[in-house]
Amino acid sequence: MADAASRLTTLAEDLLGVELPVRIRAWDGSEAGPPGAPVLVVRHRRALRRLVWRPGELGLVRAWVAGELDVEGDLYDALDRLAGLVWERGAGSPGAVRAARAVRAAQALRAVRDPRLHAAARSLLRLAGPWPPPPPPVEEVRRRTGPLHTRRRDRAAISHHYDVGNDFYGLILGPSMVYSCAYWDEEDGTLEEAQSAKLDLICAKLALAEGDRLLDVGCGWGSMAVHAARDYGARVVGVTLSTEQAAYARKRVAGEGLTDLVEIRVQDYRDVRDGPYDAISSIGMAEHVGRVRFQEYADHLYALLGPGGRLLNHQISRRPEKNEAAYHVDEFIDRYVFPDGELAPVGRTTAALEDAGFEVRDVEAIREHYALTLRRWVANLEAGRSEAERLTSPGRVRVWHLYMAACAVAFERNRIGVNQVLAVRTPGDGASGMPLRPRTWNERRER
């Protein structure tokens, strides 16, 4: 076991076919790799056992959540360097796929054509130590069965992510309690200012006026509902599947003296039947809908709007694949963060809205804004780490730390994006109600 870091670095490079872009510090205290690079700390051989049984992203994540892997140095830099080794356009990178096949073949005592690859895989198995593989960390979602996106399954998925304590979310999100991309005027502005600006932007795009009926789909902790009612005089119905969110939002509404204008429901959006509404906001909710239900989602929201009604769909997107049928959901996100969540290219989103009957009037890409938002959330979590662990668990905090930092890098590198799509249920006479120069949102915000 002497100099485990050098052995591990050599084996990894042989299996992946590229030089490692990070340093390795092994459980024996040894180090190897490029000087000055972030350090990937392998605290225990169990991390290797996880990797040889689940090569690729899931094995790495399990080791991270269990505290067997860590990063010393700039986490964002480390994630950026490592991303290309294990991930490429929605699937495993060629090197990671080749390494995984070699390890699985060695486990099954089958030879690999490349003798060097075979020898590296066998050596990694010996270095990893005795079987069996460790069980997954308790934060991992158990394997789900049955059809995707039934009401019961969606409720369980939402509960896993959102019902982990309002105090925990408050620590990360800050006083605004807005869990979606903020809208920044300046990079050094405050998170609360940027979230308020985002809510103002949405209200302006929806052209909200006093007395308008607004449906806020996936209302979270009530931030949009309160903002629209308090600052614009809208009558708001907010729906969420999270009981903890609803309890917080109702208390917040009462504290603002807005109970006559805002109703918060624990309700599936598919069960909302009390249209017509003048406007609908869907902010960071459509990612939970899934491709098998997205057309149903678009159709239902269209039916809930009156003629001339507007929809603002704020949604994370992914880059399109040449072979969409081969696209796979990110295992880390699916197992630990958003069970059953799916991202779609923005073109598919607008096509579904148009198929429902909407006229798409504006699409604004704001992915750089989400990178800034996530970095603020990460800073909040790092500053309050001890309290966050007390409120949840060390494993849950490690999940969130990795998820938010990795997403920040993904937005910065244009691996994923976020878009606000404004769509109108244009009446038969073609009068959309849109101004001739529609991009006056910021002018209206400043008045």
Describe this structure in words.
The chain has 2 domains: 4-128, no CATH class; 151-446, Vaccinia Virus protein VP39 (Rossmann fold). The chain has helices at residues 4-16, 46-53, 57-65, 75-86, 94-107, 115-128, 151-162, 166-173, 191-205, 223-232, 243-255, 294-304, 331-337, 346-356, 367-383, 385-391, 394-412, 441-446, and strands at residues 23-25, 31-32, 39-42, 69-72, 213-217, 235-240, 262-266, 277-283, 305-318, 359-365, 416-424. The chain is α/β, with parallel strands linked by helices and 447 residues long. The mean pLDDT is 93. The longest helix is centred in the C-terminal third of the chain and has 19 residues, at 394-412. Strand 1 and strand 2 form a beta hairpin. 46% of the residues lie in helices and 15% in strands. The chain starts with a helix and ends with a helix. A 7-stranded mixed β-sheet has the order 7-6-5-8-9-11-10.
Strand-residue proportion: 5-15%
Share in helix: 40-55%
Following the backbone from N to C, one meets helices and strands in this order, namely HEEEHHEHHHHHHEHEHEEHEHHEHHHEH
Overall residue-averaged pLDDT value: 93
Q: Give the radius of gyration.
A: 24 Å
Per CATH, the superfamily of the largest domain is Vaccinia Virus protein VP39
The assigned CATH architecture of the largest domain is 3-Layer(aba) Sandwich
CATH class category of the largest domain: Alpha Beta
Could you name the ranges where pLDDT drops below 50 across 5 or more consecutive residues?
A: none
Q: What is the overall number of helices? A: 18
| Secondary-structure content class | alpha/beta
Shape by Cα distribution: elongated
CATH topology of the largest domain: Rossmann fold
Number of strands: 11
Distance between the termini: 68 Å
Number of domains: 2
Q: Which sheet architecture does the biggest sheet show?
A: 7 strands, mixed
Q: Please state how the strands of the largest beta sheet are arranged side by side.
A: 7-6-5-8-9-11-10
Region (Disordered): 427-447
Active site: 407
Organism: Streptomyces ficellus
Pfam family, one: CMAS
